[in-house]
Protein 1
Amino acid sequence: MQKLRLILGDQLNTEHSWFQECDKDTIYLLAEMRQETDYVKHHIQKVVAFFLSMRNFYSTIHAQGHQAVYFQITDPDNPQDLEKIIAACIQKYDIKKFEYLLPDEYRLDEQLKTICANLKIASGVFDTEHFYTTRHELSDFFEGKKLLLMENFYRTMRKKHHLLMDGHTPVGNQWNFDADNRKKYKGEVPVPSEKNFHKNVSEVASQIQEAGIITFGNITETDFSWPTSREECLEVLDYFCRNLLKHFGDYEDAMHTDEKFLFHSRLSFAMNSKMLSPKEVLETVIAFYHKNEAEISISQVEGFVRQILGWREYIRGIYWKEMPNYAQLNALENHNKLPNFFWTGKTKMNCMSHAINQSLDEAYAHHIQRLMVIGNFTLLTQINPDEVDAWYLGVYIDAIEWVEMPNTRGMSQYADGGIIATKPYISSGSYINKMSNNCAKCHYNVKEKFGDKACPFNTLYWNFLDEKKEYFKGNQRMGMMLNLLKKMDPEELYRIKVKANAIIEDMDSL
Ligand code: FAD
Ligand code: SF4
C-alpha cells in the first residue's frame, strides 16, 4: 500500500519515530508554497531560512533511504496550495493512505482536518514528538482556575520532568532566580560574537524573488548567519553552552546599543522549526552546567530552563486553550495604525531605532526589546493588535502563530484582557534607561514628560494610564500607578495629554 506522509515547514524533526525505519511504500511530501509565504508579509531572512531548512531536511531523509518528493517554490508543476499538492500526489503515486503530523497552527490544523474529511482515501494524524506537553495539558492543569499563573505550571513541569531537581527540592533551593537576573550590561564582561554560518544564500533568495513573493527586511545574501540544518543547530546549542550560558541569566533583561544579541541563545528558530527538540536543548544545557558548576551559577541555568520548560510550553498551552477566539481579542479597544517607521526604522527615538533596525537587519530582537521597547510603544500608542500581530508574525525568524500570538497579543498588548499577564507590560522611559544605554545618546530627554524634547514613552505612559483608568480600576497591581496618576497636577496632566495626542496623530515624526 502506498502511503503519503506530509511534513510541514516547521516539522523538520529528523529524530521523529517516522524516520527510524525506511519503508518502500511510504512517500514523504515537503512543499514550499505561496499559501505559506503569503498569509502575512514575511522578512526575507525568515523565508530563506525555512526554505533552506526544508531542503536540507529533504536531503537528509533522502540520503537515509526514505522516499520523498519536494516542491520548490519555482517548480512549474507546484500548485502552491496544500490541498491541491496533496491531491496531485495522491493521484500521481496512487496513494491509498494519507498521514500528517499535528500542526501547531490552528489555521493549518483546521485546513488539514477539512482536507482529510474530503479525501476518498483513509487518513491518520500523529504527534510531532516535540513538546514536553500535549496540546491540552495546560487547559487540564488550570481547569476551574481563574488565574493561569505561569509559575505554578512551571514548577509542576520541573517536578514532572525532573529537571534541575534534587529529589523533591529544586536545585539551589529556590524555584526562581528572577531577582538575580536583571543586571544592566555595562561592558564588564565581553560578549562573544554570535555564531554565524556565513552562508551564501543567493540561489534561494533569487528563487524567492523570481516567484514574486513580497518580503521585507534586509539580507546579506553572501553572509547568512542562521542555522538551516540539524547539524548547524547543534553547533549553535554547543556554542551557547560554551560561550553564553555563564552570563545568560545575569543579562537576560539587559539591552545595549553595541550588542544585538548579548548572551541570548538564538535557538528559537532551531526549536520552532523542530530541528532541535526542547528536551535535547535542556538536557544538553543542564548536563553542561553540572560539568561546569565551578564556573556557571544555578541562576543562569534556571533562567534558561524557565524560558523553555516554562514560558515556551505555557504559551503553546494558552494558544490551544484559547484559539480560535484569541485571534480576535482587543480588550483595550485599541484601533490606531502602525506607523511607517516600523518598516523603515527611521525614528529619532534611539531605543526604537535600535530595536526596529535590528529586527529589519537580523529578523531578530531579544525578549526585552520585543516586550519593553517595541511592544511597550505599540501598547502606549494604542495600536490595533491585529496590526501589531501581523508585524511580529512577519518580522521575526522564529515567529509562528502559536508562539507569536500569545506573546504579542497577550503578554505584550494585553489584548486578551489579562489571560497571560496580570497587568500590562508598560513603562515610561525610566525602565528603558535603567536596562540599557539607549537614552544617553537619544534625541529625546528621558527625564522630561512634555515639551519638544520629552521622551515620548513618558508622555504616552501617563496618557495611557489616564485613558485606560476605568478599565484598570479594579486591578490591584495597577493601584499604585493609578494613585500616582490621581495625585498628578491636573494642569500637568492636561499638557501631557495634549502632547500625547499630537504624538499619536503623527507618530512618523517621532
Ligand atoms: P533566549 O533568550 O536565548 O531564550 C531561550 C529560549 O526560550 C528561546 O529560544 C525560546 O524558545 C524560549 N522562550 C523565551 N521566552 C519565551 C516566550 N515568552 N515564549 C516562548 N518561548 C520563549 N518567541 C518565539 O519563538 N516566536 C515568536 O514569534 C515570539 N514572539 C514574541 C513576541 C513578543 C511581543 C514577545 C515579548 C516575545 C516573543 N517571543 C517569541 C519570545 C522571545 O522573545 C523569543 O523566544 C526569544 O527572543 C528568541 O530568542 P532566543 O532564542 O535568543 O531566546
Ligand atoms: Fe527611548 Fe525615551 Fe530613552 Fe529616547 S529617551 S532612548 S525614546 S526611552
Protein 2
Amino acid sequence: MSEVEAAPLPDRLARAITLAGPMPVSQFMAAANAHYYATRDPLGAAGDFVTAPEISQMVGELIGLWCADLWGRAGRPDAAWVELGPGRGTLAVDARRAMARAGFAPPIHLVETSPTLRQVQAERIPDATFHDGIDALPTDRPLLVVANEFFDALPIRQLVRRGDGWHERLVACQDTLFLPIAGRPVPDAVIPPSLAGAEIGAIIETSPAAVAVIRGLAARLAAQGGAVLAIDYGYDGPALGETLQAVRGHCFANPFEEPGSVDLSAHVDFTTLAAAAQAAGATAWGPIAQRDLLGGLGIDARTAALAGRHPDRAERIAADRRRLMDDMGTLFRALALTAPGWPAPAAFA
Ligand code: SAH
C-alpha cells in the first residue's frame, strides 16, 4: 500500500479536493461508503444501525417464502437466488432455510463489495458465489433477487436551487472541514417541471447509480425471467428535500463530517426506480408498506408458531414483531419487479 493510500480517508478526500477542486456529492458519498463498509461490520446493537432481518428471523423466512411461492407458480424453473448487499448474511440464511422447506434449493449469488462483510457472509453461506456487481450474475437462468437496505447506500447526486437556477451540489474542503457548495449550473431542462419553481435553497436528489442497477436487473428479468424484491425507506419522487443522512452508534451525525466513519444513506425514489424498471421491460408492483408485505406473507401466524415453540422468548418475539410492523411498518416499503409472463408476487396483487 502506498503512503497516499494508507492515509485516512478524510485526508485523501481533502487532498483530492485541493488538487482537483470540489467533488460532486455522489463522488463523496461513494468514496465514504466504500471505505465505511470495507472497514467494519456496522450492523447490530454494538454497531451503527440495525436492519429488519437483524431484528427477527421472521423477515428472512417470509422473504424466502415469497421467493419460493413465486418460483413454484412460475413452474419451478432452474433459477438462481441473489442478494444485493447482504450485510451479515442473516436474511440469506433465514430465507434459504424457508425456501428449502418449500422444496426450493437454488444456488446462492451474493453481490457485495466489502471484503469485511464478504468474509462474514462466506462463513455463514460457504457455497455462495460472490460478485462485485450485477453484471457478473448468471445469464443462463431466471434470477430471484432480494435487496434490503441496499439501494439507500448507493450514491446520490444533489441539485440545489440558487437565485440564478439549479446547480449541482459539490463538496468543498476548508482546512479539514468538508462542506456542501453550489457548483456548475445544470440546464433547466433536466429539472422535473413540477419542481422547477422551488424556493432558493431547495434540494433535489437523484440516484443514477440506483437507477442503473434497477435498469440492469429489469433487463435481466426481461431476458432470463425472475423477480426482484427491494425494501427500503423511500418516497414517491421526484420530490424536493434533502434525505442524505449519516448514522453512527444509532444516532444521526453530520453527513459531511468524518467521511468513511459514519454510514451515509439517502431515501429511495421508488417512483423513479419503478419507471426505470418498466422502461427496461419488467413489471413493477407497489411499493407497498413493509407491514403489508410481512402481514400478507403471514407474520402473525409465524409469530404465534415461533412463540408457541419458544414460550420463554414469547415476549421478545412479540416485541420484535411490533418493531417490524409498527415502528418500521410504514416507513419502509417494498418494490417488486417481475419478468414478463411471470405470475403476480404474493402480497402485492
Ligand atoms: N441487507 C443487509 C445489509 C444492509 S447495509 C441488511 O438488511 O442487514 C448495506 C449493504 O450493502 C452492506 O452489505 C454493504 O457492504 C453493501 N453495499 C453497499 N454499497 C454497495 C455497492 N455499491 N455494491 C455492493 N454492495 C454494496
